[in-house]
Batch of 3 targets.
Target 1
Amino acid sequence: MVPASHLLDVGIIVVMTVVIWVGSSWLEGASEQLSEHYGLPQVVQGSVVAAVGSSFPELATVAFAALLTNSLGLGVGAVVGSAVFNVLVIPAVAAVATEDNIESNRMLVYKEAQFDMLAVSVLVITFAMAVIYYPDTSVDYLPNAHG
């Protein structure tokens, strides 16, 4: 027998999945209308308008959980995990699922590699700043000279 609390959790997950699914459909329609109204290219619509809107539920969930648990690691893990999934898994599944050949060239890989290196550098600098300005004082980083 499944405890009632687990059934409630599953019910909440199902309801929120439906809400996010419907909301993302509305977001897609709204982003198309915005891009047509302002004359934005499709790449801007997909990479800015839709990407920001589709990431908002994740941002809200992470912010809410981080406020409740006071955990920076939870937010960092969710953001990094999402970025890795979006950059590696989604294109890989799309490439495997399509019947068309996906073409690439040296310039495309070069441009993407530059963006990836920039993103990783910003992440490393952010972590470094967090460690420098908010160190964990409960850990003794230097060995005790007296023994």
Note: Residues 4-133 form one domain.
Target 2
Amino acid sequence: MNRIDARFAALRAAGRTGLVAYVAAGDPLPECTVPILHELARAGADVIELGVPFSDPMADGPVIQRAAERAIRNGVGLRATLDLAEEFRRGDAETPLVLMGYANPIERLGTAAFVRAAAGAGVDGVIVVDYPPEECEEFAAALREAGIAPVFLLAPTSSDARVAQVARQGRGFLYYVSLKGITGAGHFDPAAVAARLPAIRERTTLPVAVGFGIRDGASAQALGRHADAVVVGSRLVAEIEEAGPQGAVAAAGRVIAEIRHALDAEVDSAANPRSDVSR
């Protein structure tokens, strides 16, 4: 079983909301990446998204763009990201690891070579922002054949036909973008997300993770009530940027621990609504 499937099965059995953490490979320095990944897992991340630095992103906001620029200056691209993924996997055999990036670096390497390298590095899933499902059926099939989950994005504007197509080709989980905008925008509407998810769930049995705009425990709780998992990225990357190389690992752990605590507190409150009453 793919590690992503196993992790979501465990979360479902425990009645917990998953936490997906995004960081950019090579930021703030290449030697920080693997320690950050291990700290994310220790602090409570259920799935880790490792961003592949790219010079011309279309979905990433300023915070993640700056992280990619720093990583590129540090000499980190797709091959180095795969090396970092493999290094992380040698020390962690359980935490699901998803690469997130854009088509150009993959096509420069060659899709077949990329799939082989990703499988060899212990990667569990791949998100390619600018690969719409109708244009990457062969690539998605190759990933599935290698035991890697092709993970697709859905937006508030996605049609029912697109949802069905993504559900057919995707594996692992579906990534629902909570707003019309770039990462870190922070103006999502929890009620709109709650209204949209039932129609998505009618067309798939895959878990649904919701991202873009989640910045703290409160926003994670607001969306975690409706989703199988929440994704935190820009807040995490911003804290790493502020902390710098010396404090990046600790800063990453603090962010994830905060949000993990908030999600678990929400579950505990639902299970025991009088838990806040003095005895």
Note: Residues 3-268 form a domain with the TIM Barrel fold (CATH 3.20.20.70).
Target 3
Amino acid sequence: MSGHSKWNNIKNRKGAVDAKRSKIFSNLSKLIRIAVREGKSGDPKFNPSLRTILDKARTANMPNSNIEKAIERGLGKSASGVSIQEIAYEGFGPGGVPIIAVAMTDNPNRTAAEIKFAFSRNEGSLGSPGSVMYMFRRSDDGGYECTMPMVIEDKHIIGSLKILVEKLRECEDVEDIYLATTIDEEE
């Protein structure tokens, strides 16, 4: 009768449900941070995109403490009073594809370690400052545009690149990812 414990079954089901909720909450908090930063206001009365995302967060039963933390981070503050800074991490993906991962963080050492781990586990490498930036320029909306795009036709490289981008998006502090190539999502 081993493996038929009622507690074990409850624990496994609860763990699966908690993992799904955690992923939803982290995506919603990232959307809240972006809406606050773009709307330049943490007040939903003056920021319609924030109001829409807050409705989604309440529908998903996101705790108010998580919502408040996301709004504070979007405004550039953290709970401990440390200012949040924007850092662009440069690296190379599978096939030598240049990548810029823009992060908003209160702890650059932790964020650098997370991003380096994501690169190293997914056929990439974190580059030194300036190693990739020369291939991009700042766009009008504050993002980056590639000035020298690459064309990649190898399906293995494209698949590995998609996995790397997904792992980088899972990092909590990463806000945007810019590639020197285009990836078709329907492939």
Note: The radius of gyration is 19 Å.
